[in-house]
Amino acid sequence: MELRVLNYFLAVAREENFTRAAQMLHVTQPTLSRQIAKLEEELGVELFTRSNHNIILTEDGMILKQRAQEMLALAEKTRQDLMHRDEELAGKISIGSGEFQSTGVLAQIIAGFSKKHPLVQYEIYSGNADNIHDYIERGFLDLGLMAEPIDIRKYDFIPMPVKEKWGAWVRMDSALSEKEWIQPEDLMGERLIVATGDFVKSRIGQWMGNYKEQAEIIAEGNLLYNEMLLAENNLGMVLGIKLNYTYKGIRFVPLYPVLETSTVLAWKKEQVFTSATNAFLAFARQYGKTMSNDEL
Prior knowledge:
Layout: H1 3-15, H2 18-25, H3 29-43, E1 48-50, E2 55-57, H4 59-83, E3 91-97, H5 102-116, E4 120-126, H6 129-138, E5 143-147, E6 155-171, E7 191-195, H7 203-208, E8 216-221, H8 224-232, E9 237-241, E10 250-254, E11 260-268, H9 275-290
């Protein structure tokens, strides 16, 4: 499969019309139709269901659409990486991150590195651990800021120099907002908003111990901002990591026993990086060692 033909295919899938797609691609309609027919012959499947008025993707076509988008995105990233091999560092570094206190440290590292190498650009992807792992494996991300533990057989990493503190985000009109700590028994009878995933095996589920079986989970989410909107509207309290933000009418109350986690900036072992990414990692390592003295 040629990348050019995949681009043709995506244009037809998007426009659902050969004439419009051909005009957009600046090719003739017969040329475009022949290229799609050859692609279908090569793959041995029908990619479109055709009618007099429009065409729609078949199930096989929908699968190819997703794969084609991924392949073209990876090809463009590779092109960008190879374009910049001048003496002055340039190019693009792709980094995934969850919502952490250490995301602020990552931002400081990026800002400091940018002062030294202003031609380097950054692509920041926000997601949960599963998303970021998947994108690193596929080659769409160079690095990922993730919570420990990670598989040290597959990843190298730089520890982040801050701890993530867990607690409950509680409405100010709740009696629990006046407490110094939230304990597992305090959550009985409360509606809880938690991170998407297996609650029983999660950090919060393990922290709750025997009480987890009685927990009333009203909602799950993968972004704290969206979860906070639910809390503000009195759906329940959010259990999650403390961030350097304030939310209207909401107070963060830490958990007791104390629950803290660590994060790392990780990448695949044996990964071949551009000069810009290698220099960024060296800078990040040094930053972590000198952070306490506010030195770069």
